[in-house]
Structures are given as structure tokens and as C-alpha cells.
Amino acid sequence: MVPGSRDVKLRKALLIVFLVAAVRLTIPGFGPALLAQGQDQSSAPSGPSTPPGETVLVPKKSQPGTPQPLPENKIEKINPKDIYTLSTSTNLVNVDVLVTDKDGDPITTLGRKNFRIYDNGVEQTITNFGTSEAPLTVCLLVEFSNKWWPFLVLALQDAYEFLNYMKPNDWVAVVDFDLKPHITTDFTQDRYQVQAALDTLRIPGFSETNLYDALAFTIDRMKDIKGRKAIIAICSGIDTFSKLTYPEMLKIARASDTPIYPVSILEFLDVRYNLGMTAVQARSQLQYIAQYSGGQAYFPRFEGDLPAIYQQIAGQLRTEYSLGFVPTDTARDGKFHHLKVELVDDTGNPLRIVNQKGKQVKYKIIARDGYYSPKS
Length: 376
Fold this sequence. Notes:
The chain folds into two domains: 93-130 and 329-372, no CATH class; 136-318, von Willebrand factor, type A domain (Rossmann fold), CATH 3.40.50.410. The strands form four sheets. It has a five-stranded mixed beta sheet with strand order 7-6-5-8-9, with helices on both faces. The protein is built from eight helices and 15 strands. The protein is of the alpha+beta class. The chain has helices at 5-26, 149-162, 191-199, 211-222, 246-255, 266-273, 277-293, 306-318, and strands at residues 93-101, 115-119, 122-124, 126-130, 136-143, 171-177, 181-188, 228-235, 260-264, 321-325, 336-343, 353-354, 360-361, 363-366, 370-372. The N and C termini lie far apart (88 Å).
């Protein structure tokens, strides 16, 4: 034997043992798992602890004999499409209802038991009911066209007075339109900012009045706003060049939950220029747009009528009744559902309202006439 060969063999054996031990410690799954705080492997928990009442998704069980992949010491990349989520959905339909007397003043003494609501002729159970006063979100939509501008100025000047009926927690925006709508000022609670925005509307540059496009634009911007909201459109009502047609505008108004209150200068114009059928057609269109959206159209004949109109609109918006129901028809077909609201007394008969003198009061129910069901 060569001298020193025994020492060489011993060194080689120790090196092999050291390499094997190092491999067992560094390769995941090759050696025994490390246990925290001295626990043995059999007592380690098999999954995340779940607080009482929490819902978890259990993964599918693997088939017997299926080899399980070894864990890897690297950050796992997660595909967002593979993440499980729990969600709930509701078909709750909200309907704001305004009840006024013959003069347009709101009637505020009604309760849940006085309302009945029908969806395509089928009575629904009212699950939500509210009468509390809430902050308003109002967009002033102003026609800024040089065709009728001298008369629009009269209506616009009184729009300043509308700000006097707004409360500190109300929100107001101004949008003007001619060929297309422009955001003069976004929603703000600063009355001076709104007034400054109205002050910029002085010299219009176009004669086009694309009312339908402007209404659709404003409705889209307000669709996600919750609570009491409305569009007050100071306009002539005559549309000249919109991309949208009148039937398309009606469909948008029906699908919206934002009531539209047109304040039109048609009566000003018709008295002076005898617009004839143009005025009749524009008046009818504004009335239907307002009705389908759950609002009301106004056609003042004299400038002195405007302050009372703005005051009435503000009062009506604050005294609406909020009704909610879950339709019994659960079909998600995207079809239009007709709504009808009735007032009844304690016995289910048509409600009879009397004034302090005992005289019967004629009332009017203002609410949108339907909605489109969700489409799956």
C-alpha cells in the first residue's frame, strides 16, 4: 500500500458524506421538512385556519395515483383570471316618485302603505321606502347657440337664482352645448364657481343646437351618481344636427335613472316668431323626454314665471318618495318593463286627498314609466 493512501480515502469518504448532506438540505422535497417550534411533521396544520362563518373555496381532490408536483422555492405567478371571487348581485329596481297638487307643489304626507307599484301589470312588493331629505346633484345644461341667444339669456339670468335654492351640501355642474357639449364646470359645492362658469357664457359662436347628443352625454356622466339627482335643461327644445335621433333619445331617457327638467323658451319664441308646427313638435318631444325620465317640462310664457319654476323644481327634488322592489320576473332578457304607480288608502281603494277645508285635492303622480331589465 502506498503511504498516505489511507488518509486520501478517508478524505474522499468525508467529502462524499458532506456533499450528500448539503444536497438533502438545499433541494426542496428531497429531505425532511423543517418544523416550526419543534413540532413534528404529523402535527403540522393541513391548511389555513378558517374563522367561524367564513366561506372558503375547497380545491378539487386529485385522482388516486396522480403524482403531486414538488414545491418550488420561487415566487408563484398568479393569473388574475384564475383567482376565485365571491360576489353577490341584486335586481333591485329604484323608482323615485313625486306627488304634486294641481299647482305643482309636492304632497309630502304619504307613507309606504299608500303606494302600489306594478311591473308589466303585476303588483310588486315594495322592499325599500324612503322620504328623508338628501343632498341634490344637479347639472345645469345650457343651450349656447347664437340662433336664439337673446331669449336664452333671459332664462339663463334666472338660473343664477336657482343657486339660491341649493343647500351647502348640494352639488352643481354646468354643461353648455351647441355643436357638441362642453363641461363649463364639473360638479362642485362652491356656488361662486358655478356663477363664474355661467358668467363665461356670453358670445356664442354657432347656431347649431344638438340637444339630443348633449342630453345623452350628460346622462352618461351622471349614471353612476347615487341619491337625488337631476338635469335642468335650459333650452329651446329644437334639435338641429344631433347624431342621435329622437327615438334613440327617448330610449336613453327611459333607461336612465336621472330625471330631466327642461325649462324651454319655446313660448317666448312662438309669441314673437309664430314657429307653428316647429314649436308644437319641439314641445311634444320635450314633454315625452321629461316624462320618460321621471321629470317634468316647463314652458314659461313670461320671464317673471322663471323664479317660481326653479323654486318648484328644487322643492320637488327634495320631497320625492324613493321606492324599491325586486321584480318577480327574473328573466334577464334586456326587455323594457312598463311601470305604473298608484296611490291607495288603508282599504286598498284609490286614495282621496283633501285640504284643510275638506275639499278634495287633485294630484299628479310623476315617475319614470319603465326600465330595461339586465341582459345576461
